[in-house]
Amino acid sequence: MSGQHPAIGRAEIIAVGTEMLGGGRTDTNSVFLTRHLEELGIEVQAKSVVADDFQLLERIVAEALARTELVLVTGGLGPTDDDVTRAAVAAALGRPLDEDEAIVAAIRTRFVRRGYEMPSINRRQGMVIGGAVVLPNAVGTAPGQWVEVDCKVIVLLPGPPRELEPMFLQEVKPRLETRVAGEQIVRRTVRLIGRTESHAEERLRPLYAAWRAQVPPVTATILAGRGQIELHLASRSIDPAVARRALAGATADVEQAFGRDVCSTDGRALEEVVGDLLREKSLRIAIAESCTAGMIAARLTAVPGSSAYVEGGVVAYSNQAKVALLGVPLSVIEEHGAVSEPVAVAMAEGARAVLGAGVGVGVTGIAGPGGGSEGKPVGTVVVAVAGPGPDVVARTFLFPGTRQHVRVFSTTAALDMVRRSIQFPA
Amino acid sequence: MSGQHPAIGRAEIIAVGTEMLGGGRTDTNSVFLTRHLEELGIEVQAKSVVADDFQLLERIVAEALARTELVLVTGGLGPTDDDVTRAAVAAALGRPLDEDEAIVAAIRTRFVRRGYEMPSINRRQGMVIGGAVVLPNAVGTAPGQWVEVDCKVIVLLPGPPRELEPMFLQEVKPRLETRVAGEQIVRRTVRLIGRTESHAEERLRPLYAAWRAQVPPVTATILAGRGQIELHLASRSIDPAVARRALAGATADVEQAFGRDVCSTDGRALEEVVGDLLREKSLRIAIAESCTAGMIAARLTAVPGSSAYVEGGVVAYSNQAKVALLGVPLSVIEEHGAVSEPVAVAMAEGARAVLGAGVGVGVTGIAGPGGGSEGKPVGTVVVAVAGPGPDVVARTFLFPGTRQHVRVFSTTAALDMVRRSIQFPA
């Protein structure tokens, strides 16, 4: 609850960077920030992307601050000439911009620790707007700034998400928590795999109606991508426990409707669910990949601590690699073709045997754009899972879309088959 | 060329729709519009997404029109209560909003032709701002509007891309062509690897000054990420060949200044450059990955046609996998540790030998968050490249940041070492 200040209820986000105007890069920070602001009950009413232009940014910042109670400005805090955020915001507020010796010293130390001298242009990153609270950057050189302006707040955050996200969570969110009115938005994500978006939507529609009618209501947004469906549930209440109970009820409804197609109800990604299952059963996994070429191994090992259950893998892109590294008999490839259930099974069993793992997974397919035929068009992908135990399952998929799309869908399908093999053994 | 009007050189885009603020949906229209405006020589200086809020939109439209010469407003032209664009723009301009009987009749005909009666709410789509030119919608019900305001222009376009795109191309672009100065913007991207952003910037600064001073000037934006630097160059001229020549000169300056650190000057990604080099030399590559665990193979094979030069790879996550699949002697691991130059070299040579390839690359490192020690902290990564020919090079890096960050930087560093080994053999 706010003490001396009126509560902050609305916000705008300004991303600074000419490169985000063309389409080559998009502003992903605003999605992260919006989600967290909503959790605090702060509504984002507008967001914008502005070129690296001092006068334009000065004007846009002043206008946004006149319209709303909280302005978050992301990016443009680098050391170079086209990083104009600090100076433009100072000008918009009519405040001085002064070098802070302590910040410059900290930046210099960062360089020295890596064996470099600090380039003189990095001094610019030590410039602080009059009256600002400096927000330390645990990951990069540019600190953030929190500036109180009458009853409003403007916050400067670095552009790289890996710097912005921890700074927002550690420095900005706790300060905002003391400045909001009280109703909290609580969210929960349920992941489904094995349904199309349309089929999921049909089955969800009666649930939506029931959720909207209850108190507090639960709202749902469905998002499909990468071969899976995410259902984002949200509820709001002054007492977050009440909102959480409403979400638990809605989650139970989804589990009832979708059964084994529910991958997680607590936000865990598929690769985390598979990792947790492997760890629980003290199993290790070996991966043999052709068309996905390392993407399954990379996704499993993106989870910290995955060395506890990932033994290793083989990227068997050529037939020669399938024979030499996985012991797939050349006769099986010649008889059935490289993209076939017998080859996928031999790859899964070969990986498991060669690496001495409890579970083996094999993936072979035609990602395109070339390589398709009438019988096996582009998008044909075969997944086999060997283990745990003596069981082997294989399944042939036909995925639509581009090369990258087929590869991503194949990765999701393979990890989901591993999940089901462990969670629901035959 | 403009006749009675001064030329339009700058624009802003406003997308209307609360649903685009959350992150579930993104504004893709602005990417389409920006590309076409740039072709006309019109620079997009800012773009924003605004909630379905009458008063807020009225204010934001008025402010944008005061800042720039052309404002494109997309979305919010539907028939429902939360479609506020027509009324908000009329209010911002202080003009009336009147029903146009001909538009309503055309909308009614669309419904009747499909066997429906027109819902009364659709009359709203026939409301026209005073003085506007109505832009017919070949695909949907909502017409667009072109409004002249003193020497400026504001255009209302429907939100669905399949309605917006033909309307822009058929109705808006031809009108804009008569209002621009005639200059085209031409762009070129140069990629650098092996420098920090600050160091690159210091060396580029004198070039920036020279480029700005020449005719036509060349502008540059620097972007760092994933362990590489992108330099986006742009120039504008009535004759695009002149702008392209200016960019060629600037590109030559960069090549002179950065030598072997220039990865590409034609926009190709690192993995494409490596692929093209392998193809040119008729070489095939084998990849042995520990901490990157498939990311190098996945990135190389993201390029269509990469089966011509990618033989395969091994994800040797455990020591057991390094020994069994790559023939790394256990004694070398025990003596030097799994993260060491001798092990990386043995991995690169092992992958090359086992897979019968011309080039082998080996990567081993500590991605974190666990596993670091005083001598080998988190972020320590060793890359070795064996070949082409008898040469073997190895290098130890120390990367900052999260697990994912270390893995991505390692992937870039490894591919760049392959590039240099082929491009500049010892």
Give the arrangement of secondary structure elements.
The structure is a homodimer of 426-residue chains.
Chain A (H helix, E strand, L loop, with lengths): L9 E7 L2 H4 L6 H11 L3 E8 L3 H14 L2 E5 L10 H9 L3 E3 L1 H13 L13 E3 L3 E3 L8 E6 L2 E6 L3 H17 L6 E9 L4 H17 L5 E7 L2 E10 L2 H19 L3 E3 L5 H11 L4 E5 L5 H6 L9 E6 L3 H8 L3 H7 L4 H15 L3 E7 L14 E7 L5 E7 L4 H21 L3
Parallel strand pairs in A: 1-2, 1-3, 3-8, 13-14, 13-15
Antiparallel strand pairs in A: 4-5, 6-7, 7-8, 9-11, 9-12, 10-11, 15-16, 16-17
The average pLDDT of chain A is: 91
In percent, how much strand structure appears in the residues of chain A? 15-25%
Strand order of the largest sheet of chain A: 2-1-3-8-7-6
Roughly how much helix do the residues of chain A carry, as a percent range?
40-55%
Total beta-strand segments of chain A: 17
Class inferred from helices and paired strands of chain A: alpha/beta
Describe this structure in words.
The structure is a homodimer of 426-residue chains. Chain A has 426 residues and is of the alpha/beta class. In chain A, 40% of the residues lie in helices and 24% in strands. Chain A is built from 14 helices and 17 strands. Chain A has helices spanning 19-22, 29-39, 54-67, 85-93, 101-113, 161-177, 197-213, 240-258, 270-280, 295-300, 319-326, 330-336, 341-355, 403-423; strands at residues 10-16, 43-50, 70-74, 97-99, 127-129, 133-135, 144-149, 152-157, 184-192, 219-225, 228-237, 262-264, 285-289, 310-315, 359-365, 380-386, 392-398. Chain A has a 6-stranded mixed β-sheet, sandwiched between helices. In chain A, strands 14-13-15-16-17 form a 5-stranded mixed β-sheet, with helices on both faces. Chain A has a 4-stranded antiparallel β-sheet with strand order 10-11-9-12. In chain A, a hairpin with a 2-residue loop joins strand 10 (219-225) and strand 11. The model of chain A has no long low-confidence stretch (mean pLDDT 91). At the A-B interface, helix 1, helix 2, strand 2, helix 3 and helix 10 of A face helix 2, strand 2, helix 3, helix 7 and strand 10 of B.
